[in-house]
Design goal:
Strand order of the largest sheet: 2-1-5-4-3
Distance between the termini: 75 Å
Structural class: alpha+beta
Mean pLDDT: 80
Number of helices: 11
CATH topology of the largest domain: Heat Shock Protein 90
Shape: rod-shaped
CATH superfamily of the largest domain: Histidine kinase-like ATPase, C-terminal domain
Order of helices and strands: HHEEHEEEHHHEHEEHEEHHHEE
CATH class of the largest domain: Alpha Beta
Helix content: 40-55%
CATH architecture of the largest domain: 2-Layer Sandwich
Radius of gyration: 57 Å
Low-confidence stretches: 116-124, 424-429
Length: about 475
C-alpha cells in the first residue's frame, strides 16, 4: 500500500511536469483554421491520450484537438472555465472524470498568450487553453505494481508462514518431548529422560538439563525408597523368623511341663536349661536388633539434624589397635588351639602401631565377631592372619583367612542383616546373621570403613580402617 501510494504520487508528479510544459507550449501556439490538428499539438502524442482545447474568455470552446482519434473514456469532462476561473486556478493541474466512467484525466488551464483573431480585429483578451492528459497509463502502472506487490507479498507471506511454522515446530519439539517424558513419568516409568535437542546455552537446553537432573534425583529417591521398603520387608520377615524360633522352643518346653511330660527332676532341670539357653539367645537377638536400630537412628539424623544428641553414644578415647590385634591372636588360640595364626602388618610384613580415637569396647566387639566368623566358617586347618598398622592416614586392622572365599553375589550381601552364606547351617554355627551388619555399623559410627576382599578359593580379608587422630574422619 505504501509502495503503490508513493509510486502513484511519483508518476502523477511526472505527468504534472509534462502537462505544465505541454500547456505552456500550447498556450503560445495559434490554432489554425479548419479541423486539422496543429503540428505542435501532434507532437504531444508522446504523452499518450492528450486533448488541447482553446476557450474564449467566457469559457466557450473555440477549437478542440485530440491527439488520438479515440481518447480514453471519450475524453475529459471539463468544468466551466472562463477567463477568471483559469486565472484563479493559477496554472495548477487538477483531475477530472471522463465522459465514460472508469477513466480519469489530468488537466491544466492557462491563459492563451497568442491572439485568436487578427491584430486588426482584436478587441479583448485572447482566451485560454486547456490541456488534458489521460491517467490510464499511470493507473495501469499502479495496478501492475499493486498486483505485483500483492503477489510477491502473498508469496513472501506464505514463505514466512512456512518458515515460521517449521521454526515454531522445531522450537516446540523439545517441549513436546518434555511433555512425553513427564507423561511417561506420571505413568510410573521413572527411567525416561528428556533428549537434549537444544544447545546447552539456550533456555530450552538449560531447562532440559535441569529437568534431567531433577528426574535423576527423583529416580534415585524412588529407587532408594523401593530398596528401603524391600529391605524393611525382608528385615521384618527375617526378624520374625529369628524371634519365632526361640519362642517356639520355649513354648514347646513349657507345654511339655504343663502336660506332665517331665516326670523326673532331671527332666525338669534339663528342660529349664534349654529354656534358659533359648531365652539368652532371644535376649541377645533383641539386643542386637536394638543396637542396630539405634545406630540406624544416628545415621539418619547425621544429615538431617547434625546437632541432635545421638541415640547411641561412643566412649571415644585414644588407643592403639595393636592391643585389639594381640587380644584377637589370643582369642583365636583359645577358640581353636590347633589353628595356625600369625600377627603381621597390613597385607603382610611386620606389625606397627595404629593409633586411633575410638571406643575400645565396641571395636573389641567388632574384632571378636570377625575372629569368630573366621574360626567358625573355615576348615580347622585353615591359617588365619591378623594384620595391624597404618596405611594412607588410616589405622588398619584386618582379619584374613585362606578359606573357600565368597562369590560376588555373596560378597554383595554379606553385610546384609540376617543374611547367611550357607542356609544349611543351624543357628548355633551360623548365628543370627546380624554380626557383620553390627560390625559395619559400629565401624561407620567411628567414621571408618569395614571392607571385604574375597574371591572363590582365595579366602576372605575383612579390613577395618579408622582415621588417624590428626587426620579428618572419613565421611
Amino acid at each position: 500500500m505504501i509502495v503503490t501510494t508513493a509510486l502513484n504520487g511519483y508518476l502523477q508528479d511526472r505527468v504534472d511536469n509534462r502537462l505544465e510544459l505541454t500547456g505552456q507550449i500550447a498556450a503560445r501556439l495559434q490554432p489554425p483554421g479548419g479541423h486539422d490538428t496543429p503540428t505542435g499539438v501532434q507532437a504531444l502524442g508522446v504523452l499518450g491520450d492528450t486533448t488541447v482545447t482553446y476557450l474564449a474568455d467566457d469559457g466557450s470552446t473555440r477549437r478542440a484537438f485530440d491527439v488520438n482519434p479515440a481518447p480514453s473514456g471519450g475524453g475529459p469532462v471539463l468544468p466551466a472555465l472562463d477567463r477568471d476561473a483559469v486565472v484563479a486556478r493559477g496554472g495548477r493541474p487538477f483531475t477530472v472524470d471522463s465522459r465514460q466512467n472508469g477513466h480519469a484525466w489530468r488537466v491544466i488551464s492557462l491563459p492563451h498568450a497568442a491572439p485568436v483573431l487578427a491584430p486588426a480585429e482584436q478587441t479583448g483578451p485572447a482566451g485560454s487553453v486547456v490541456v488534458a492528459t489521460s491517467l490510464d497509463e499511470v493507473h495501469r502502472t499502479i495496478a501492475k505494481a499493486r498486483n505485483l506487490s500483492l503477489t510477491v507479498g502473498a508469496a513472501l507471506l506464505a514463505v514466512l508462514a512456512a518458515v515460521g511454522w517449521f521454526a515454531v515446530r522445531s522450537g516446540l519439539r523439545p517441549l513436546h518431548r518434555i511433555e512425553e517424558t513427564t507423561t511417561a513419568i506420571a505413568a510410573g516409568d521413572y527411567s525416561h529422560r528428556v533428549p537434549e535437542l537444544a544447545a546447552p546455552h539456550t533456555e530450552v537446553g538449560r531447562l532440559t538439563t535441569c529437568l534431567n537432573q531433577m528426574l535423576d534425583q527423583i529416580d534415585a529417591a524412588f529407587r532408594a525408597r523401593a530398596q528401603a521398603e524391600a529391605k524393611t520387608r525382608r528385615f521384618f520377615a527375617d526378624a520374625s523368623h529369628e524371634l519365632r524360633t526361640p519362642l517356639v522352643g520355649i513354648k514347646g518346653y513349657t507345654d511339655l511341663y504343663r502336660m506332665g511330660a517331665l516326670p523326673t527332676r532331671e527332666d525338669i532341670d534339663r528342660t529349664m536349661t534349654r529354656i534358659a539357653a533359648e531365652s539368652r539367645r532371644l535376649t541377645r537377638l533383641v539386643e542386637e536388633m536394638f543396637l542396630l536400630a539405634r545406630l540406624d537412628e544416628d545415621t539418619g539424623h547425621a544429615a538431617g539434624a547434625p546437632d541432635r544428641a545421638p541415640a547411641f553414644a561412643l566412649d571415644l578415647e585414644p588407643m592403639d589397635l595393636r592391643t585389639l590385634a594381640a587380644d584377637a591372636l589370643r582369642d583365636v588360640r583359645a577358640l581353636d588351639s590347633a589353628r595356625r595364626v600369625t600377627l603381621t602388618g597390613p597385607g603382610g610384613g611386620r606389625p606397627s602401631n595404629a593409633p586411633a580415637v575410638a571406643d575400645e569396647a565396641r571395636l573389641r566387639q567388632v574384632v571378636t565377631n570377625l575372629i569368630g566368623n573366621a574360626v567358625a566358617h573355615t576348615p580347622a586347618d585353615t591359617p588365619i592372619r591378623i594384620g595391624v598398622g597404618t596405611d594412607d592416614d588410616h589405622a588398619v586392622l584386618e582379619v584374613a583367612d585362606q578359606g573357600p572365599g565368597l562369590t560376588p553375589a555373596e560378597r554383595e550381601r554379606v553385610f546384609d542383616r540376617f543374611y547367611r552364606t550357607d542356609s544349611s547351617r543351624n543357628r548355633t554355627t551360623g548365628g543370627s546373621g546380624l554380626g557383620l551388619a553390627i560390625a559395619q555399623a559400629l565401624v561407620n559410627a567411628h567414621g571408618g570403613r569395614l571392607t571385604l576382599d574375597t574371591a572363590p578359593g582365595e579366602g576372605c580379608t575383612f579390613r577395618v580402617r579408622l582415621p588417624l587422630p590428626d587426620a579428618p574422619p572419613v565421611a
